[in-house]
Amino acid sequence: MQQPTHWIEHQNHRSSHKLAVIHKPGDEPGLFWLGGFMSNMCGGKAEAMEALGQELSLSTTRFDYAAHGQSSGDFRDQTISSWLSDAIAVYEKFAEGPQILVGSSMGAWIALLLNRYLLEQGQPPAKALVLIAPGVDFTKRLLPHRFAPEDFTKLETEGELLRESRYGDGPYIYTKDLVEDGNAHSLLDQPLKTGAPVHIIHGGEDPDVPLAHAQEIYRHFLHDDARFTLVPDGDHRLSRPEDLALMQKIIRSFASE
């Protein structure tokens, strides 16, 4: 596992922790990685993004949210708000000039929230957003179809629910705070407006984020240049060589504009 090039002491509204960051300076536009739920910055897609950045002499930034990967923190203390706060802290320290936000699964949700934050602060939006297997609004839109009624009862009474991961990296921890906070950050109750071009990549065999959900997200981009690429036999992780090559091709097209 690649070691961080930088550490950030950060305190969000939930905890104080150290964020592990791998930042490599380069030209514009920068490539900024936002990972998924219980993932880390050293996965295949993040490394493929960095490899493309090095090939094109672009700056690249990837990091681990609190309680993910090499960053410190207690997972049970974290929410969508706290991970967004982490992303903002890393972005404001390392992102110079226009950035292409590349978000995977939950990271696609964080990417959209980060871009919204930039607009609210009067800053330029991302140069582009590449959303891979986007788990936008997963606490509100996906978990109700994944959990049984007794699961929600346990979540309400005990404050958390453990579920084994199909990827062998579990159990995954879902807390009541995570779900309630995530629901407060819902984006799909109204049209999405990013001020940037958007490209969604989704696998037709994704067992975690249904194709219908990704298509619904796509239909919410009424004001932006949005495109959708379906990988018919792709799964949720989209980490096969051909998947990584597709991701790099799409990022390359935005970087050259």
What does this structure look like?
- With 257 residues, this protein is α/β, with parallel strands linked by helices.
- It has nine helices and ten strands.
- The protein has helices at 44-55, 80-94, 106-120, 138-141, 143-146, 149-158, 176-184, 211-219, 241-255, and strands at 6-11, 16-24, 27-34, 58-63, 99-104, 128-132, 160-163, 172-175, 198-203, 226-231.
- The strands form two sheets. An eight-stranded mixed β-sheet has the order 1-2-4-3-5-6-9-10, with helices on both faces. A two-stranded antiparallel ribbon has the order 7-8.
- Helix 1 links the parallel strand 3 (27-34) and strand 4 (58-63).
- Helix 1 packs across helix 9 (241-255) and helix 2 crosses helix 3.
- The radius of gyration is 17 Å and the shape is globular.
List keywords for this structure.
257 residues; alpha/beta; eight-stranded mixed sheet; two-stranded antiparallel sheet; globular
